Every structure is written in C-alpha cells, then in structure tokens.
Amino acid sequence: MPWDPHVGDPPAGTLTVLAAIRIVAHDENVCALLAQPTRPVMAQVLPLDDAIALLVRDGDCVAMEGFTHLIPFAAGHEIIRQRRRELTLARLTPDLLFDQMIGMDCARRLVFSWGGNPGVGSLHRFRDAVEHGWPGPLALDEHSHAGLTNRYVAGASGLPFATLRGYAGTDLAGHSPTVSALQCPFTGETLAAVPALRPDVTIVHAQQADRKGNVHLWGITGVQKEAILAASRSLVTVEEIVDSIELRPGGIVIPSWVVSAVSEVPGGSWPSYALGYSDRDNDFYEAWDSLSRERETFLAWMQEHVVAPSKPKSVGSHRRETRPDRFRDRR
Hints:
The chain is an alpha/beta fold. The chain is built from 11 helices and 14 strands. Strand 8 (180-183) and strand 9 form a beta hairpin.
C-alpha cells in the first residue's frame, strides 16, 4: 500500500516521491512530514572532517552538485586534505572546485556535461590532465545536460536506464560508452538511452538543516535532490542548523531519512554563493585564471589556502584569514 505521511513512518528502506519535495506555500503534507517525531534512518550531524572520513573512500564515484550557487567547495577541500584518490567525479557543470580536485590528483574519471570557469575561460588544471596527463590521466564521460540529468533521475527511480530525445546532431554517442540508441516499442522512434548514474556518495551544499537532519535549500536549484536520491550515501553541508525549517515558496526539502550526514559549514560554498547568506566572489573566479594557469603557482596557492589549514575553525574564518585582500567580500 502507498505510504500515508499522516499515518506513520515509511517502511524501512523505502524512498518515495516525498523524499524531495518542491515546496508550495503552506503545503500541509510537507509540514506533516517534517513534524513526525521519528524516522527509520536519521541523518547524523557531524563535523565536516569526520563526515568526509566516514562517507568518502578511495575509488568512489562522488557527485558534487550545485548550479551557479550552493557549490560544495568546503567539502571538496576536505576531500583534498584527506588525500582521497582514484575518484570518479560527477557534476553537470564542473568549474573551479573540480579544477582544484583534479589538479590535486583526486580524480581519475570525470562524468560531466559542461566544464569551464564561468564567464572567464578554461579550467587549466582540467585541460592539463586531459592534454598532458598531469598530475595523472583523466578519463572523460561527456553528456548533454539533459542526458546527465536523466542518468540521475534513472538512478533515483531505481531504473536501469533512461530514454530521451537527445544527442542528435552531436558526436557524443561516438565518444561515450554510456550513450546508446534504442527503438521505441510503441512508435518505432529511435531514442537515446543512458544508464542510471548511482554515485557511491553525493555531496551538496544548502542553506539550512534542522536538528533532525531535514535539509532546506532554495534559489537556483539544479539536480541536488535527484543526485542524493540516486546515491548510496550522502552528505549535505549547510550554512546553519536551525531549530525549525520555515518553508519557502520554490524551495526544496530533503528529509533526513535520505541523508547520511549533515555538517554545519558557514561559507561552505565560497567562492560561489548561498542565496540569502553570501554573494558570489566574482573577483576570485577571475583571479583563478592566472592562479591556476601554471602548475607551480597552482600548487603553491592550494598548499597555502587549502592543504595547510588542516582543520580551520570554519570556512568563513579560513576565508577571511587566508585569502588576499582583493578577494574579500564586499558586503
């Protein structure tokens, strides 16, 4: 029988469409879900270093989603500090974070649908790995946005693959073993098919979580909820942990029973932004082009600002104390 949120907890291990909910104002069903006193599985509230140590392992497929804002930089930096290796990194739009992780030898494979420094240019560490194998070879699995999104959706839905009208007019299918074609059994139409993407762990950043581990994010959203539902494990870093969540029109609630761990990391999306909490550091995105262009300059910056502070008090304080004056917030 379908689970009724007004009656009790869902069966253990069950994921329903309520696992990630597009909020409308005064949604009584969502309020009833969050008010339930118990869950089959509760998210752990952990310090970031402990959460990464627990959830991210060498060789994992790690999805780190966030579109324009809420990019989980702090979590990525902790993965670098803990020297995770041989990772498959997945994200629709890898930008500076994956450039840093690739350059610090965390990744051996990249699943993506666009890559670059938004509004600035290339990712030099990404290019160096692809073109010269430094600091190690990097295999690529490139998709369209629609194709990669459908891979997450298939994984979240427990399906082996997804179909879509896509890739026509491109040569992506010829370069990726994860794009194929099939004939619709009802219309005879030729469609693209992509396999489900089921990350070992998905990491996202959000504005808030309550003390039960329910997560609330709003603003520009990407595929965070699909990526979490598709994953075996998940970590959400948040700007703050609050006593109760105030629902916002257009926001998304991800309930604690589909989240493995929550870490409170103020400023955890810098240099991207968290709507309502911080502004995008456009100066840093521009400066990254020169900072990352040469291997020596890149390694020196990463050592000083990411690797050396092995346990910063918080990302916010780490940022204020270490980044050059020209990168400071102008709020």
